[in-house]
């Protein structure tokens, strides 16, 4: 049974002060967009020297492996190493790239997937 709208309006007695909120939120957004802002940058973007760290320190092989991690054609990668995932895809006849296997067998890269510990 639906309740009349009068009862619901009386139940939720919240009043919002939109005039004061819009002023404070605009000033915060404006401060964040300026270069002299006091708002701290996320730690991932700040290098040891204090400047923004926008370059990627991963090599070409790691980039290839990240593409392999993100390619769902070879099945999920959560909870298993990259080589285990490659071998499973090979057993299932999904034809994973041989380049991935050779990179992983050398042992110069991280065996865990891009999502390991993040999801």
From TrEMBL:
Pfam families: DNA_pol_delta_4 (PF04081)
InterPro entries the record matches: DNA_pol_delta_4
Highest rank taxon of the organism: Eukaryota
Region ranges (Disordered): 1-59
Stretches with biased composition (Low complexity): 19-35
Protein name, per record: DNA polymerase delta subunit 4
């Amino acid at each position: 049974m639906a309740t009349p709208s009068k009862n619901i309006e009386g139940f939720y007695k919240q009043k919002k002060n939109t005039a004061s909120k819009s002023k404070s939120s605009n000033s915060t957004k404006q401060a964040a967009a300026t270069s002299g802002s006091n708002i701290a940058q996320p730690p991932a973007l700040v290098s040891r020297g204090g400047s923004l760290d926008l370059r990627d320190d991963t090599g070409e092989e790691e980039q290839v492996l990240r593409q392999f991690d993100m390619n769902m054609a070879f099945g999920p990668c959560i909870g298993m190493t990259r080589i285990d995932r490659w071998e499973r895809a090979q057993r299932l006849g999904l034809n994973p790239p041989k380049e991935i296997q050779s990179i992983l067998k050398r042992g110069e890269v991280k065996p865990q997937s891009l999502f390991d510990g993040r999801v």
